Structures are given as C-alpha cells and as structure tokens.
Queue: 3 jobs
Job 1
Amino acid sequence: MDSQLKKGLLEYSVLAALAPADSYGYQVIKDCPPALGVTLSTLYPLLRRLESDGRVTTFTRLHQGRARKYYHLTSLGRKSIQDFVAEWPQVETVVEQIQAAAQMLPDQEAQK
Amino acid sequence: MKPRRLLPLALGLIVFGAVLAFAGVALNHFDPSAYANVGDHWYTLLHFN
Amino acid sequence: MTRETFLMRLGTGLRGHVPAGEAKRLVAYYDEMIQDLIEDGSTEADAVAQVGDPNDLVFAAAQSVPETPSQPAHPRLLLWLLLILGAPLWGALAVAALCVVASLDLILWCGPLIGACLASGFTLGGGLAVVVSPFALIGTFDYGLTQLGAGLLLLGAGLLIGWATWQLTRLCWRGHALLFRWVATQWQRPKAVFA
C-alpha cells in the first residue's frame, strides 16, 4: 500500500483497535491489519499524538508483576472514528474516479 | 620611523657601543680601580680648572 | 543483545536528543514491548532484535520530538521581583567576576608597562651618557671612550626593549580584545540555572 495512504488510515485503525476494549501497545499492533504494516516504532509517535489530541487517554495496570500502559478511547476518539466512516462515501467517489481512469489506461497505451 | 627599522639600528648601536666601551677599557689597561677616581676627576675638572 | 543492554543503549542515546520526560516514556514503551514479545513466546534476544537497533530508534525519536504543551509564560513581575530580591547575592558575584576580569586585564598590561619603563630609562640614560661624553673625551680620552661606548650600548638596549615592548603591546591589545569579547559573549549565552 502507498505510504501516504497508510499514514492516513493508520490512526483510525489504531483507534478502531481500541474501540472494543482498552488495550496495550503490543495488542494494538496485533489487532491492526498486517497490510498497514504497523511497527513498534511507528506506533509510538502515533499513540503519543492521539494522546495529546485527547482522542486517547492512558492508564497503567499491573500485569504479571510489571506495569503495562493501557490506552482508552475517549468520546473524542469515538467521534473521530464515526467522522472517518461518515466521510468514507466521499473517499469512494475519489476511488471510483481513479478506477475509471485506470480502466481507460490500456486503451490509451494502444492508441500510441 | 618604522618599528621594523628600529631593530637593526638598536642591534647596531649595541654592538658599536660594546666595541667602543671595550676599547675604552682596553686603553685603561683593563684596570677597574682607575674608574674609581672618575668622580674626582670630573669634580676637579669642573670646579678647579 | 539483552533487554538490559538495549534499554541502557536506548536511554543513553536519547539523552540530550529528546527531553528527559520523553526519553523516559520511550524507554518504558520499548521495555513493555520487549516484555510483551517475550510473553508472547519470543526469546529475549529475538524480542530485542524485533524491536530494532537502538541507534535507529534514537534517530527516529530525535527527528520527531512531539511538541510538548507550552508552559504558561513566567509572570514578568515575579522575575523582576526575584532579580531585585536576589541583588545582594548576584550583585556580589557580578562585582567579584568584574574584579577578576579587571585584574586579568591589569596583569596583562603589566608586561608592556615594565617594558616601557625599561626602554625609556635605558634610552634616556644612554642618550644622556652619549651627549655628555664629549666633555669626558676632552678631559680623559679613555674614560670618555668607555662612557660613549656604554652610552651607545644602553641606547641600543633601550631601543631594542622599546621595539620588544611595541610587539608585546600589540599582543596584549589582542589579548585585551579577546578577553572583553569573551566577557561580552557571556552576556548573550543562555545560562544554565543551578537550583
């Protein structure tokens, strides 16, 4: 997938991973689709940004004798997901335009 | 005068002065005690001649 | 690489590149990741390898330091109040520092002063001896000759010292300029606050 496209989808995918229940970093990586290619080092700045945006809050919980940082989706985060989904039809119109153009491409090649 | 020209002049004066002073002492047969009377000499020269 | 080594390298690498709080967060984040990977079945070495090279992580972190919420600006009045209240302390320190600088400058100029005194003394004394020597030459030739020679020698020495003093003065002037430029830059440099 195109890296710019990934960048745009990544934060919503992470928010979606937190939607069913509060989760921690490693679990978020496992829950995100592999196609997005979330890595440990890409996740950190993302979570940091979501936290400073107020879309996510953090809390620490003990797990097997060690502290683990959990991420919780705020109402702002939930709204962010809904907004993204609401905007999707618009994205689809763009995709349709691109698809239509892609179907015409072989004809142009043949005309040359 | 430029400071750069001062250096050879100073060194020349030192060497020339040393030679003259040496000649003076040599004429005096290297006798330091002779200079002890110089003060007296000047005194008599100025006051009694 | 063990987890300990990795975390130590990461922590040391981050120092100075990102704020201390941010470095702490990053180390905690990667520590948690490594432990989760181990819990998930990886060996320690494997888990550390999956996380990546600490140097790369440091580089990435230094590139994208998340903006920290800016602290509310210090009230100006409070700063001025502190400045005035602290005057007996910083004033004394400032005066002491100025005195040190002034004495350094004084020491610096002692060289040229001594040189100038020696040069003028030698030149005047030698010159006088030369000027008066004809009388001595008339009186007693060999005394006069010695005086003339000694006078010329002293005159030469005076000029030589004068020349050396001139060179020294130029050096001192440069040192003086350097010293005061350094003092001036101290003003502009942001100060670390030890508290």
Job 2
Amino acid sequence: MFYREAGQYKASYQADQAIFPIAQDRIVVVALLAVAFLVVPFVVSEYTYRAVLIPVVILSLAAIGLNVLMGYCGQVSLGSGAFMAVGAYAAFNLSVRLPFLNPFVCILLGGFVAAGVGIAFGVPSLRIKGFYLACATLAAQFFADWAFLRIKWFTNYTPSGSVNAPPLQAFGYDLSSPTANYLVSLVFAVVLGLAAKNIVRGHVGRQWMAIRDMDIAAEIIGVRPMYAKLTAFAVSSFLIGVAGGLWAFVYLGSWEPAAFSIDRSFQLMFMVIIGGLGSILGSVLGAAFIVLLPIFLNQALPPLGALFGWKISTATVSHFESMIFGALIVFFLIVEPHGLARLWSVAKEKLRLWPFPH
Amino acid sequence: MTRTRSFNEVLLAVENISLSFGGVKALSDISFDIAKGEIRAIIGPNGAGKSSMLNCINGFYHPQQGAITYKGVRRSQMRPHQAAEQGIGRTFQNIALFRGMSTLDNIMTGRNLRMKTGLFWQALRIGPAAREEIEHRKVVEHIIDFLEIQHIRKVPVGQLPYGLQKRVELGRALAAQPELLLLDEPMAGMNIEEKQDMCRFVLDVNDEFGTTICLIEHDMGVVMDISDRVVVLDYGKKIGDGVPDEIKGNQAVIDAYLGVSH
Amino acid sequence: MAFFLEVLIGGLLAGVLYSLVALGFVLIFKASGVFNFAQGAMVLTAALALVRTLDIAQKEWHWPFGLALAAGFAFAAVVMAVIAWAAERMVLRKLVNQEGIILFMATIGMTFFIEGLAQTLFGADVYPLNIGLPKEPVFILESVFDGGILVNELDIWAAVIAGLLVAGLALFFQRTRIGRALRAVADDHAAAQSVGIPLNQIWFIVWLVAGLVALVAGAVWGSKLGVQFSLSLLALKALPVLILGGFTSVPGAIIGGLIIGAGEKLAEVFVGPSMGGGIEIWFAYVLALLFLLVRPQGLFGERIIERV
C-alpha cells in the first residue's frame, strides 16, 4: 500500500544507479539517521550507550570491514581480531609518540597501518585459497596476540601491559561523555560505511565479486586477481583497523591484547554470516543481533530456568550462547546464506504488495 | 548460405604448439592462423584438444613448445588477464558467469579493464568515479539492447535459464570490446530457436563491430554456415584446415567423425 | 647435545598428539571434501564424556577401574556416533554440492554448538584424567649421554598408541569393503554413488571414525594436560600440520605433526628467549605460511590442476 514504486520513473542512469533507488527507502534511511543523531542522544541512558549502542555501532564498522573481504571478495578470514588490534595499537603509539595529533586522527592513521599489515598478510593469499587463507589469517591472529603482549615497545613499556587511550577531545571540546562517544562512533561508522557501500557498487566492488564467484573467469576477462584481492584486503583491514581504534579509544579507554583475541575474530565472523554475506546492511543487522542476543539471554534465561526449578549460572548462559550462535550459523548457511539482510529484502518484497496477496 | 570472403591480414598465428599434462599429450604440433575479421571455427570429436587450444591462446595453459603470434608480437608465456588486456575475449563451454551478480553487473565487469578511477574517488562516488560509471553504463546498455536482454537486466544470473546465461556471457565478453573473441561451444545444449538467435548474434558481432571470432562448435550445420574457415583437430593433431567446402570433402575429417580405426 | 636431543624428543612426542588430531581432519577431508573445523570440539567432547563417565562410575557407583574405563570409552564412542549422525543428517546432507568454504564455515558453527552443548552437559571445569597410562618421567640413553635424556613415559605411550591407530586405519582402508568404498568416495562422489555406494552412509562412517580418532586423541591429551576447554584450541594447531603435510595424506598428517611439534619446541627453547618468549603460540602458523609459499600442495598433497 505504502511501499510502492509504481510511478517512480528513472530518467537517467544516474537515478537508476542511486544508492537507494526507491523513494520510500530514501525517506526511511533519512528518518533513521535523524533519529540516530538527533533523538537518541536525548532519550537514552548511559547503560544503553555502553552496553548496546556504542558496541553495535563500532562492531558494525568492523563487520562491514570483514564483509568486504569475506562476503564480497570471498576470502575467509579468522584474523579480524588481529587487525582490530593493529589499528588500536597503532593509534595508541601514534598518540604517544606524536602527542600533538588529535586522537581521532590517530585512529584514522591506525586504520592505514592496519591496511598495510593486511596487505603484508594478504600477499601469501595470492597463491592460496580457502582453508589455506584461513590458516594464514590465524597466523596473523596468534602473531598479533603475541606481539602486543611480548614486544614492550608496542605498549610503550607500561609495566602492566595494559595501555590507556589519550583524552578524547577535538577543537577544544571534551568528547569523553557517553553521548559524545556514541556520536563520534556513529559519524565514523556512517561515513566509512557509506564509503564502503560506494566501493562495493563500483567497479572495484564488481572486481571483488567476480573473484569471489569465479576467479578463473574473472582473470580471463581481465581482472588481475592479485590487485583485486589486495585491494579487498587493504580496504577490509582499514575499516577493521579503524573499528579497532574506536573500540580501544572510545569504548574501552584502557585495554590489553585479550580485547582483540580470536574470540573477537569469531564474533565478527558470526556477525557477517548471520547478517548476510555480501551486504553492508547485513553487517549492521548482524552486529546488532550478536550484541543484543547475549544481553537478552542473560536477562531471560535465569528467570526461565527458575520456572522449572533450575539454577542457571552465567557460565551456563555463555554455553547456551555458544550453542545458539553455532546453531544459527549452520541454520543460515543452509537456509539463507544471505542472512538477515536477505530476510529483510524478502519482507520488503512482501510489503510491496501488501495488503493484496499478489 | 555459404560465404566467401577474403582476408589478408593475419591477426593471430599459432605455430607448432604442443601441450601435455603429465604423460597425456593434449596438443601436438598444431599450427594455424586466424585472419583479421574472419569467423574461424575449430571442430573435432570430443577430447580432440579444442578447448585446450583456446586455453593456450588466452594464456590459461602454457604450451611446452611452439609460439603464438598475436598482432605481430610473438609471445611465450602470459597470464590470462594480459590476454584480456590485449583484446582477447572469451566465453566458456560450461557457463562461467558470476552467479551472485545481476546481468547488468556481470556485463559491467566486462568493462573493468577500461575503468580506471582509484579507490578514493570510488569511495566518494562523485566526480570522475560517477562520470565513469555512467559512461560505461551507456556502453553496456548498448550491448544489452543488442542482445535483447533488457528485461533481465537486474536479475541475478544464477536464476536465469541456460540459454539466457549463454547470452549474458557473450555480453560480458563483448563489453570488453575485444578484437579477437573466442567462443567455446556457444550453442551447446540449445534448442533450434536459441541456436538461431545465437548464430545471428555471432554474425552481427562480426559484421557490426568487425570482431574476429574463433569458435568451437559441434553442430556441423552451424559451423559450415557461419564460418569462413575451419580447422579440424583429432587426438590433439590437426587433420584439416580450409574453407567449409574443402572440409566437407576431406577424407581424414570424414574418417575422424565416422570413426575409422587408426 | 643431550639437551638438544631432550628438547627434540619432547617436541616430537608432543607432535604425535598434533598428528592424532590432524588425522581426524584428513579422514573427513578425503572422504567428503569438508574441512572439519569441529575436530577440536570433538576431541574436547570425547574427552569430557570419557572423564565424566569414568569419574561417576568410580566414585558414585564404585565400579572397578577396568569396568569404569570400558564404560567411559563406550559412552564416549556413543557420543561420537551421535555427533557423526547429527553432522551427516542435519548439516552435510543439506549442504551437498555447496562450495567448500560454505561447508567450512558450517563446521565452525558446529564447533560452537558442540562446545556449548558438551560443556552444558558434562561441565566446564578442569578434570584430571587417568586411564592407567604411567606418567613418570624416565631417563633414556644413559649410557650415551651423561645423566641420560629425560622423557615422559606418557608421551612414549602416546606415540605407541598413535602408531597402532595409524596401522589400524591403514588396514581398515586397504583391506575392508567399507574402506574400499571410502576410497572410492574420496576419489569421486558422483562416480561412487553411481556404482551404488550410499554416500550418506559413508559420510556417517567417516565422521564416526574421525570421532573415534578424536576420542583417542582426547584420552591421551586429557591424560597429559587434564580435560579442559583449551583442548579444543590446541586442536587448531592441526591446521598448520595439514598445510605442511597436505590435506589428503595420512602419512602427511603424521610427519607434519612431528615437524610442527619438534619445530615449535626447538624454536621456543633456542630462539624464543631472544624474542621475549612465548613464540610457541604462533611459530607453527608462520612456519606453515612460509612453507605455503614454497609448496602450496603440502609435502604429500596432490597437485591441483585447474580446468575450465
């Protein structure tokens, strides 16, 4: 009824290639952004910021980064935690060694460092595929775990091994309040997310998808596999690295290497699979889902267990979480490899016809 | 329709190519040439080495012996994407489309070689990146019109029927505006009507764009009708080469197809 | 020299354990083309099922040790059979003809499911496991070196068990009807099906055999380190082992395991201190990565010819 595109004619290729070609979509997106920027800061509690909104926003960005590599270019990575760590520690070192730099500039530069490291680890992947790449990225993960723990220069010789972010400020404004943290993260995520969307719908993105869908055919029509994979690695690591910097500076404040362990890598991978391989929107949905589900389980399971007279400990909840994630991964891979994003577009198809059955 | 056209300029020459996998000889001492502007067919029974021949021409296989001269340049080894950069396009025996992408995106990928804007402009998608996208979209829409596939522009190719997929694959190869187009069994598994369409497209491509075409095909009727010259392979050896009428009368070719014992 | 040998032998014996896990990977990869990430979770689950049954049978039901041990192994084997059945029925069958990478990710999902389930059912503490293997350190070659070389008796037993297991598997594959069917399936799924080999049944058997290999690995490893969650992480080391040995080769898994085991111990002891220590956690992966650049198909893997 309301979601109709009849009567919306596209008179130019430009209009047809717009990011949201349907007018209703544009309205919804603008409204959502307005709510996120203008309404949320006035109504949300500090707990919601810390437990939900900031993690969802930052991890969405990381998930978009991983989706570029996995969903668009078809290269499995089990080491995204490592690239978050590289971004975080690079930003930290820049802020320590070049104290005149604004912390947010450090975060951005940290992204570039992560892109460089990503390329370095991506080079072996030129020759290898599939599981082999998974192993190469695991190497990156374990190497980063070790390097940031044992190589003291990276942590500026702090005795505890834990490091602190510089005070967050820009143009003389203090940005350490939860609202400011949230808004800053949101700006990063929206701007970089939009950039990622633009890249994946341009010729570079098509190159990645060509490599993903059939690398031999891609090469025969002139895609250079090396260049395509390396750009995917670089863009992906850049986004993940920036997310890592934000996670460390904005969300954690002070952190240890364990914040970017292999568990983080798996978490991001789940976001991408559940949200939808090859979808920017899916990355965001996946991040929200993976952040919210444990919160929900923690709230819901103990009372539910009490109904049956079971005492459910936090450890049990985390085991349940692991089971549910595992089952969902298998479920989505079997039933809907394009994840929540695909469910969303099916819902939109239905909405187009609503309230009529056909 | 029998066509007699004459061509002077050699676009690609294959000299004494031999290729083997382990102990299996796929091609032995093959020589032939492809003239600029002609439609050249490669025929032969299954396993004769036809696809291997195409794979050598576009750099996917590297022959152990012999050389390929393309546009006057002899080359020993090259990667497939270099062949593409030099203007050799190709379709495959088993459809090799990018299944996760739409028809439009598949054909746009064919323009990839000519799209140059860097990541930065891509990320912003304004200025040069936006202009480039529109410019190439126009070319691609022209190909879509030419192949009469407007209605499936936005459909993921994985959902298309076989005949249309073949057509999209041709479109993707055409999008690169190749000088030499290699078609590996473009009509295999099609019904009469689809075959007629495909023949028309092949002839039109040759006429309108002046593209040189080298095709592998099993349907003798089609081959004899549309090709200017035919080369015949059997067990990796060349057993015939000439205009369709010569091939029809060639005893070695008749034997190969009727299965005379060697 | 004696110290070097001591480290080398210790590393080789630890490598045997990696080989045991890698073996499970190879079996499944050969027969179904699936890279089974869940092998580590299967090791953990088997070990948990074994140790918990053993504990309960001994402490609560007061069964004699031998009987309790048999019950433990029997129950763990049943658990492995259930996992094999569920994997075939609920995952593999539904993902037939999908790309390897999708199946790989599905096994990652299975990993998390199995780990969560196993820890919910059997508990998540550290459980010491005693299956009757001696654990005393012993000195060998005392006549050659002053003071001899210190090795752990348990490690030697582990090597013996691994050897027996490999011999048993080799016999099973070469001499039995099922073994022949397995090899046929490994060569070509469709062809095997067309001569009447039931693919689903074969997959179940392969997963079961891999599960039993996991049980043996879990029993030996659990005796050495105690049964705990980290068993499933140690299993990740099988990845570099496979890259070294090749994904389809049983001897490759064994030799790869030995190289990784020895290599990382030697590196830790002789190179580690100059790098701040703890390089064991990444050495195997980086070694495998460098190896990839030289020989992508592994020591014993088959060369891949691509066709279009």
Job 3
Amino acid sequence: MNIWLYILVSAAVSYLIRVTPLALIRREIRSRTLRSFLYYVPYVTLAVMTFPAIVDATQSPLAGLLALIAGCLLSWFGGSLFQVAIACCLVVLAAEWFLI
Amino acid sequence: MTTLNDNRACFRAGLRDGIPIALGYFAVAFTLGIAARNAGFTALQAFVESLTNNASAGEYAVFSLAAAGAGLWEVAVMTLVANARYLLMSCSLSQKLSPDTPLGHRMLIAFDVTDEIFGISIAVPGRLNPWYTYGAMAVAIPGWSVGTCLGVVMGNVLPLRLVSALSVGLYGMFIAIIVPPSRRSKIVGGLVLLSFALSYAAARWEALAGLSSGVKTILLTVVISLAAALLFPVKDTETEEAAS
C-alpha cells in the first residue's frame, strides 16, 4: 500500500471530524447517551492503546512495565504531560541500563 | 465588535501560551517519528502526516496500521475512533465562538483542535477570538511536524538503548491524559483499568490472533465506551469539565 494514500485518508478523516461540528453544529448535542459515549471514548481508546503496547515497545518488558507504573504515579500526583512523557523515557533508560 | 488591534493582541497572547505547548509537542513528536520510521515512513511523509493530522494517538494508530500493511478502510475507521474526542471538543468550541463567526474562521480553527490547543482556547474568558487560537497554532504546528520529521531522521543514528527509551514517551503522554480524570472520577478510573485488562486479554488470547491490533482497538473502544455510556450516563456538567 502506498504510504501517501495512508496520509491522504488519515488527513481527510482527521479534518472532517474536527470541521464538521465547528461548521455545522451550533447547538449542543442533546442525546445523553451520545454525549456520554463521546465523553468516555478518549480515555478508553488511549488506555487500550497504552497497555500492553508499552510493555512490548521496550527491549525489556519489565522496563516498559516500570515506565507505566512510574508514569501513572507521576501523573496521579500532578505531573504535566511533558514531565510524564520524559519520566517514562528516563525510567526505561535507567531500567535497561541494569537489565540489558 | 473586534478591531484589528484586538486581533493582534489575541494573536500575540496565543503565541505566548502556545510556546510551552510547542516544546512539549516537539519532544513527544520526536518519539512519534521513531514509530513512523519503524512503519517505513520517510522524513517527508512523517512531516506531512503530522502537519495534516495533528493527532498523537491517531497518527500512532496510522503508523501501526501502515506497518501491518492494513487496508485504507481500517486506517479511516481507526483514525475516526482514535480522534473521536476531537468531535466532542469541536462541539464545545462551536459553542465558545460567537454565533456569527464566519465559516472561514471555523474551518481554520478546525485544523488544529488538539487536547492542548483546545484546552487553552476554551479557557479564554468569554467568547473565543479565532486569532488567539491562530497564535497558538503558529508555534504548535511547526513544533509538532518538525519534531516528527526529526524523529525519523535522528532515530536512525540514535543508539538502540535511547530509541527504546524514547519509544515510551508517547505512551507517557497517553498516561498523562487518562490518569488525571481517573483520579477525579471512579468511573473513568475503573474504565481505564478495565480497558488495560481487556486490551491485555485481547492481545494475548489465541482466538483473536487473526484480528489486527487496530481492529481490536476499535472493537474494544466502541464496546467499552458504549456499555459505560448506557450504564453510567454522564451529567452535562461532567462533559463540560472534561472539555475545560
């Protein structure tokens, strides 16, 4: 499959998702179920994509697991997006220094 | 009434608020570039993908699917699912704009509705002047797309140890998005844990080995979110909090 086709399709879908409500909907969505569904989707989909993928991404699965735990703890206690992302990287770097 | 001076002041304010966002984007986009490189994207292709998509999870899903040689419909559906939250954010933003905001402005803002740009745009007191969002976009978009591009280029020369470490940066960002709401809401927290468990089961269960990881993500997301919406419908104030 040509990679440019992947880019074209993903760009078109990404833009349509964002522009459709802004251009067309000027009133709030009334359906409570639809609102609730849209409210839960980001958390569920990001969680599904994070685990177990984070464990499979590193050379040592244990390092990935430690990064997951460290990231969750730091974020729980107020770490910013940037801090959490960097902390996960540092944990893997440190863990694999000893494990590999 | 907005004057030209108002627009200039708003643009500068957006530029100022966009700088920390751009720096964060740069680091995360770099790790995304490593995923792009692994999926066979050139630096130019990764640059264009980031320039036109502006979505971490969505782009990551595209790179994973491309690496697996998935079909275009799979890419379309997965992009839709991974970016579904932007639909909700755009709905909120449409309420934040003055109703007489011209279509052209609406179409430009739509280009970069991300967690962070949306967050600062919705936090502006009163109605949103589109020029504020443009100011933030002016630094955030280059940070994101150039970061991805450099991830592809530099990922090649970095030692394996460093690539392994940087590859979890993206998951760290996902964690930073899902954990704070989990702390505020037991339902969201429970759903995140349930999603971890079911995702692990789906990844390891032999019977599902025939399905691509993208299809598994779509199925799990729709089933879990729909069940949650039916069992725990949210109050209007909660969706507004999530949006702010």
